[in-house]
Structure formats: C-alpha cells, structure tokens
Amino acid sequence: MARRWTNTLTEADITPEAAFWNRRQIMAGMAGLGLSTLAGGAKAETLEPNSWDDVTSYCNFYEFGTGKGDPAAYAGQMTTEPWSVRIDGMVDRPGAYDFQQILSEMTIEERIYRFRCVEAWSMVVPWNGFELADLLNMAGVQEGAKYVAFETLYRPSEMPGTAYRVLDWPYREGLRLDEAMHPLTLMATGIFGKPLPNQNGAPLRLVVPWKYGFKSIKSVVRITVTDQEPPTSWNMANAREYGFYSNVNPKVDHPRWSQATERRIGGGLFAGREPTLMFNGYEKEVASLYEGMDLAKHF
Ligand SMILES: Nc1nc2c(c(=O)[nH]1)N[C@H]1C(S)=C(S)[C@@H](COP(=O)(O)O)O[C@H]1N2
Ligand SMILES: [Mo]
C-alpha cells in the first residue's frame, strides 16, 4: 500500500512539491504497516502533511545553533559527500558503508508520519527512506545483541553550534533492538520526494515516529549494535527530564510542562492546541513492545 519505488531516481525524476501534493492520497495507518490496519477494517485517517517551508525552516539541529532557524541558516556548510556510515559492534559484517552503496541496496519508500517534539510542537512529514531493519540485516545482527547506538557527525569546522557545550558532542542516541527492528523505524534519506536538506539531517537520519523528536538523530555516521543500553545525549544532559525510552505519552508530563497537548506547526495564530496521542498515534503498532513495563518509570 505504501508506494514503493527503487533507488534509480535521477534529478529529473524528483517530484516538485506541487506535483507531490496533486498525486498524493495518503492515509495515516497506510504509511508502511498499514496493510493490517486496513485489512482489519479500521477507518483510515487522513494525515495532512506540513508544507516544505514548515519542515525545512523550523528545525532542531543543535550542532548548528539552538535557534529554530539556525539549522536552515548554517547547515548548508556541512559536507555530505562523500559520506559513510560505520556499522560496528555485534554484527557479522562490520565496516564503513558508503552512503551511495547503502542506497543501491535499499528500497526507498514514502512514509507520512506524525512528528512530535518533546517541546510540545508537532508536524506531519512525508519522509522517504528505508527500514532500519533492512540496514541492520545487511550488516547481520549477532545473537545476544540488545540495543543499537547511533552517532551524528562531529565536525566542529562546519558546525558552529558545537563551540557551545549545550550537549556532549557527538550527538548520541539509542534504541532497544526490537524498537530498532520495528517496521515503523525508518532511516530517512528524503522529504517530499527530494533528498534530505542538510538542516533535516542529510544525507540520512533516523525517524522513530512514536518517540519524541530528539530520538530521531540526524546525519548519522555510526551505528553500533551492542548488548548494553547506550548512553544518549539528552539523557546525559538531564536524566530527570529525558529518559532513554522517551515514548510520546500524554499522561507522563515533562517536569517543566504538560505533554497532554501539542501545537501543530503551520496551524496559524488562532489554531487551538491538539490532544497528544499515546505513542503519537502509533499505539496499535507499538504498544506490544512495552507490555508489562511501567511507562511512567521507564519514561
Ligand atoms: N544530531 C542531532 N539530531 C537531532 C537533533 C539535534 O540537535 N542534533 N535534534 C532533535 C530534535 S530535538 C528534534 S525535534 C528533531 C527535529 O527534526 P527536524 O528539524 O527535521 O524537524 O531532530 C532531532 N535530531
Ligand atoms: Mo525535539
């Protein structure tokens, strides 16, 4: 149901935003997993994506500054070619994987996901990318592995924000292995059918739609499969405010603000706040991963 295309897209094939909007007819549950959703007779919900301008101008990418406009202003100086991703740890085929080589092995598809920042704003983003599981399977996950750790590029000469120790660079994130292998978990390489702009995490970034946005680490250069829960940047910065799991949960407030509602970017001055959904609306798909866990404790 998710429209798939292969990675043979050329510049000429890239869909202009207008055409994207015209040909688009997408329903929420269909993104990726939706087959079972529809087969089960559940009513598909229409997700109206944000505009290109919303997605590319209102960003968090602290390596380029903490202002929402800083990434759009400064991330252009990040060199993204050549790019390779080191995959190491508990894998059968560790090594430096060239980004172009990765692309040639993966099937790029479109996924329209809700995106909810821990700061209580949200967007709907039409991503292009491949399942993280496909990449991990390419490297061959070994028996006994339990977690996956990720690192962003750390290149101070091109990243003015890293002059400030807001976070302990490089930016680091992590997932439990079953979260990483979940079919909703995406490695994004594009938005709106175009290559990912630098400010959104070029050339490839993680997207975990049921978790707060900071888990969706940008411009990934290293993926490590491990049996230990990996340290993560926001958790190291403030463990009381940012847990390892960071699943979107309207019933577990941030110590300094409520998580019950969200402000949809692009909604206009008079748009009301919208209720935040459990697991950001992906409860049916992911709740079973956390069966028996106290989600207030493992926040
Ligand atoms: N390397 C890196 N990844 C990052 C961040 C960051 O500062 N550095 N910010 C995170 C946060 S807080 C959010 S909300 C999302 C924002 O993604 P977007 O700008 O593409 O909407 O990226 C996440 N990934
Ligand atoms: Mo965020």
Automatic annotation (TrEMBL):
Superkingdom: Bacteria
GO biological process: protein repair
A Pfam family annotated for this UniProt entry: Oxidored_molyb
Cofactor(s) needed: Mo-molybdopterin
Catalytic reaction annotation: L-methionyl-[protein] + a quinone + H2O = L-methionyl-(S)-S-oxide-[protein] + a quinol; L-methionyl-[protein] + a quinone + H2O = L-methionyl-(R)-S-oxide-[protein] + a quinol
Alphabetical list of InterPro entries matching this protein: MsrP, OxRdtase_Mopterin-bd_dom, OxRdtase_Mopterin-bd_sf
Residues annotated to bind Mo-molybdopterin: 62-63, 117, 152, 200, 205, 216-218
Alphabetized Gene3D superfamilies for the sequence: Oxidoreductase, molybdopterin-binding domain
Keyword Metal-binding: yes
Subunit structure: Heterodimer of a catalytic subunit (MsrP) and a heme-binding subunit (MsrQ).
Main function: Part of the MsrPQ system that repairs oxidized periplasmic proteins containing methionine sulfoxide residues (Met-O), using respiratory chain electrons. Thus protects these proteins from oxidative-stress damage caused by reactive species of oxygen and chlorine generated by the host defense mechanisms. MsrPQ is essential for the maintenance of envelope integrity under bleach stress, rescuing a wide series of structurally unrelated periplasmic proteins from methionine oxidation.
Protein name: Protein-methionine-sulfoxide reductase catalytic subunit MsrP
Organism, scientific name: Phaeobacter gallaeciensis
Top-level taxonomy: Bacteria, Pseudomonadati, Pseudomonadota, Alphaproteobacteria, Rhodobacterales
